[in-house]
Amino acid sequence: MRNVLIASLFAVGLTATACSPAEQADTKADVQAAADKVKSETKEAGADIKDMATSPEVKAAGSDIKQAAKDAGALAKDAAGDAARETKATIHDATAPSEADKGSSP
């Protein structure tokens, strides 16, 4: 769209200068042809993107990514649980009274 605007402003600039009516008509036709081409190519690109986004391959890839994320989450949850259990056991061992402490109670 920006290119069409630039081309239109360019055409207006040329029209405002001392061009003959035939040159002005040619310029206007060229600008219109360029605008039509940009519009057509934009529509084609949009259709291609839509086709790609809805393709079975892209949907399958999305499904695979979703499953991988779910698996990674489960692994992370398991790892966090293991780490918590190990930390709890380490703290318990570090703070539990030793055998010497148990035998020398006042």
How would you characterize this protein structure?
With 106 residues, the protein is mainly alpha-helical. It has 2 domains: 1-54; 56-94. The chain has helices at 2-16, 21-53, 56-95, 99-103. Helix 1 (2-16) packs antiparallel against helix 2 (21-53). The model has no long low-confidence stretch (mean pLDDT 83).
List the uncertain runs.
Answer: none
Question: What number of domains?
Answer: 2
Approximate shape: rod-shaped
Helix content: over 70%
Largest β sheet strand count, sense and barrel closure: none
C-alpha end-to-end distance: 89 Å
- Determine the strand fraction and express it as a percent band: under 5%
Q: How would you classify the helix and strand content by structural class?
A: mainly alpha
Overall pLDDT confidence: 83
Radius of gyration: 36 Å
Our count of helices gives 4
List the helices and strands in order.
Answer: HHHH
Number of strands: 0
